[in-house]
């Protein structure tokens, strides 16, 4: 071949001195010749026998490998977008055009640098970044990511969470999720109708919390459902242990309440409620609830409130006690207060509370004697 001055030049010289990033590779993808511009761009990595794929970013090599068979089978140019190594700049976005030559069986190609703001490449890079992030999550967290088609057949099945179930990646592809697991919560059926949801389930001896998200096509129809199942077995076990502890605490509190406000049936129809220690509004309210329930369930006629062990009451407590006696009367029983200490009596007087309608006795013995006398008294005769 001759140049413009009539001087003969070889094909190697033509490729080497081209102003474009040219290369020649064998059918196996190994580089054989390249232009000076490509050599200056890539740097020391470029050497005879270097696989063309090694010039590409690791995330872009798959696209080249996938389409290489097309290059070998056809002389039609094929364009591949990606990033190639660049001295001093890391990787630069390029469009690689390759074509097989039937005459010598070699592959000829060139690189064309793309502008940094190329929309298609940016979108490709974003998709690959999302894929990288999702891959890291799926491989690290105790999750299983799966996809089903509108019939419920698995089309994708991956995730580190499969280790606990003894499954392998892709094992369920082609099987129907409803045949395998059913759908007790109905969340999956709703997702297939276009409504995302969340459900808790048991499978393979573990507890799973699953989020299901429908994927729509351009017409708005659900074309698939993405599932994200998280192994929450440890959390559920921790909740069960916590609930057991709460149940024990609640039982202990019931015992304490019964001890602090014990209702004693001293005689048929006679109940006694001894109050001991510090009496506050909360404790009085609890005692009121328990006593009224006991009067109703046992059909008691008398309820004796023994305040012998109470040293002091405040305004709210005194008011609660009076309202308690009135509530007892509304249930058809009679309330008696006994054992009022001087300090408590002084408080009642200072508050101006009217106890004239309430029976009061000096001590519990006197209160119980009053009840016995009332029980022995003959019923009044009816008058006509």
Provide a descriptive summary of the structure in words:
With 384 residues, the chain is an alpha+beta fold. It has 3 domains: 11-123, Beta-Lactamase (2-Layer Sandwich), CATH 3.30.450.20; 141-234, PAS domain (Beta-Lactamase, 2-Layer Sandwich), CATH 3.30.450; 261-376, 2-Layer Sandwich (Transcription Regulator spoIIAA). Helices cover 38% and strands 27% of the residues. The protein has 11 helices and 15 strands. The strands form 3 sheets. Strands 2-1-5-4-3 form a 5-stranded antiparallel β-sheet. Helix 8 runs parallel beside helix 9 (315-330). The longest helix has 28 residues, at 233-260. It is rod-shaped, with a radius of gyration of 44 Å. Residues 4-9 have low confidence and may be disordered.
The helix count comes to: 11
The biggest sheet amounts to:
5 strands, antiparallel
Write down the domain tally.
Answer: 3
Residue stretches low in confidence (pLDDT < 50, at least 5 long) are 4-9
Quaternary structure of the protein: single chain
CATH topology of the largest domain: the name is Transcription Regulator spoIIAA
Keywords: Phosphoprotein
InterPro entries: Bact_StressResp_Reg (IPR051932), PAS (IPR000014), PAS-assoc_C (IPR000700), PAS-like_dom_sf (IPR035965), PAS_4 (IPR013656), STAS_dom (IPR002645), STAS_dom_sf (IPR036513)
Pfam families: PAS_4 (PF08448), STAS (PF01740)
Protein name: Anti-anti-sigma factor
Summarize the structure.
This is Anti-anti-sigma factor. With 384 residues, the chain is α+β, with helices and mostly antiparallel strands.
